[in-house]
Each structure stands twice: as structure tokens, then as C-alpha cells.
Amino acid sequence: MLDQANQLREKMRAKKLEKAEAKSNKKTRVLAVTSGKGGVGKTNFALNFGLSLVEQNKKVLIFDVDLGFANIDVLLGRMPRETIASMIEKDLSAHDIIEEGPNGLLFISGGNGFNDMFRMDDFKLQKFFQELSTLQGKVDYIILDTGAGLSYENLRYILAADDVILVTTPEPTSVTDAYSIVKMVHGKDPNVHMKLVVNQCTSIKEGQRTAENFKQAAHQFLEKEIGILGSIPSDSHIPEAVKKQQALMLAYPNSESAIAIRKMTNEFLELRMPYKLGLKGFIMKILFK
């Protein structure tokens, strides 16, 4: 994507960032939340998972990179002052476009109608990710709420993240589309860490069965190990929270779904996974792929 001179300059900047990161005790982990198709509750999960991490005293930034269909702000009932689109148009810093949501949750809105990030000229693209690099160590987790499906942009984010959380439902079409994501990503990079969340389950058994069948298929046909993060029951509180434009974790903190998300968050934190890339590695992968 970048010419040779630009690549050399960017690699020098990346080395400086790497040295700064090595000196810092606090690191930033990048998680991509994705799905094979729309309508499976991916954005709702990303938002409430982020809030659940905040409950565990983690500093979290949700980065809505479903460009053209950004809706984290809608779920929160917040109108962002600035977005990724306005950042590029107005030459703003990353800190200028960060919004503070409930309980200190931070978020960046992509901006509706903006879906050409990777078609920007090299200078603008470099500047955007240089600005993003200033968040290194300022937050514990950056959660990327990607678009659904296998677009060029989504694949770039998935391959660059530390971990990928794949959201599906028990519906056969949803499972098939989620499997297509795994197959494509595994073909590009077998080392991508992927974890499955089964949403909208009618029972615990249905969620467990769907997850185990998915895991077995990935192992048998792709020799890919998929972690199971957990399942979320169908819950009337979820659409009620959406209508209220409030996060489920805040509107109905004792609902079955909220409890399930907290359980997954605890299990996720207990994994104590090493930082393979962090924010520095994420940016390098995005720029030099």
C-alpha cells in the first residue's frame, strides 16, 4: 500500500513506538468483534462486553469501524461531536474524536456514510493510524466493532487484531456464514486467535451444542482450534434496552443476558493471554499488509 520511502519512514516511527511500548508497564490489547452476517447482535455484544470489562476496572475504548453503518452511538443514545470521517476532513487528533460514554467507557464513531478508509491516499491513512498510536497504554482494550461479513476492510482488521471474537446465532445460515469467516481468516493466517460467542440461544444446551459442533467442524476440516467464550440466551430485555437507547448492562444489569456476558468477561480475563501484537503490532500490520 505504501511506497518504499514511506514504508521506511513508517517503520522508523513504528520502532520508536515499539521502544516506548517496551518501557511502558501498561499495554493495549486490540480485540476485533465480528460476525458472518448482520442481525446476530454483534454490536450489542461489543458494547456490553466493553461495559463488563469496565466493571472489572479496565479502561476500554470501542472503535466503531463498521464504516457506513456505525451505530454504537445509536445504542448509547449519544450524538458524537466528531467521527473518523470528520477527523480526516478537519485534520483532528485521535483525542478530539473520542467520546466518553457511560461509566467511563470510551468510544469512537465511524460516521455514517464513510466507508472508504483503506481507499484514502497514503498520507491520510498514515496520519490516521499515527494518531491512533497515541492511545498506546492509555487504555487496556480497544474493541473493534467491525462490519459483518468478509469485506476487504473487515479482513484487514481481523488479521491485525490480537484476538477475534466471532458472534453467531444457532441458526444454520448464521453458523455457515461464521464458518466462512473462520475458513477465510485461517487461510490467510493460521495463528489468528478466534473465540466463539453464540447469541440468541433458546437454552443453555442449544448454545453449548452449537458451539461444540462449530468447534469440532473447524478442527476436523480446517485443523483450526476455536475457543468457546460462551453463549447468551434470548432475552426480551435486549430489544427493550435498544428501544431505550441504553446498554443492556446498565438498563437491565440483572437480566440473564447481562449475567451471561459478565461470566464470559470473567473467563476472558482469566485466560491471561500474552500480548502477541498490541496496538503497535496492530498498526504495523494494517499499514504494511
Textual characterization of the structure:
This protein is an alpha/beta fold and 289 residues long. Helices cover 49% and strands 16% of the residues. It has twelve helices and eight strands. It has helices at 4-23, 42-55, 72-76, 84-90, 122-133, 152-160, 172-188, 204-222, 237-244, 248-251, 256-270, 278-288; strands spanning 29-35, 60-64, 99-100, 106-108, 141-148, 163-168, 193-201, 227-233. Strands 3-4-2-5-1-6-7-8 form an eight-stranded mixed beta sheet, with helices on both faces. A hairpin with a 5-residue loop joins strand 3 and strand 4 (106-108). Helix 1 packs antiparallel against helix 12 (278-288), helix 2 (42-55) packs across helix 11 and helix 7 packs parallel to helix 8 (204-222). The longest helix is centred in the first third of the chain and has 20 residues, at 4-23.
SSE topology sketch:
Layout: H1 4-23, E1 29-35, H2 42-55, E2 60-64, H3 72-76, H4 84-90, E3 99-100, E4 106-108, H5 122-133, E5 141-148, H6 152-160, E6 163-168, H7 172-188, E7 193-201, H8 204-222, E8 227-233, H9 237-244, H10 248-251, H11 256-270, H12 278-288
Parallel strand pairs: 1-5, 1-6, 2-4, 2-5, 6-7, 7-8
Antiparallel strand pairs: 3-4
Helix pairs in contact: 1-12, 2-11, 5-12, 6-12, 7-8
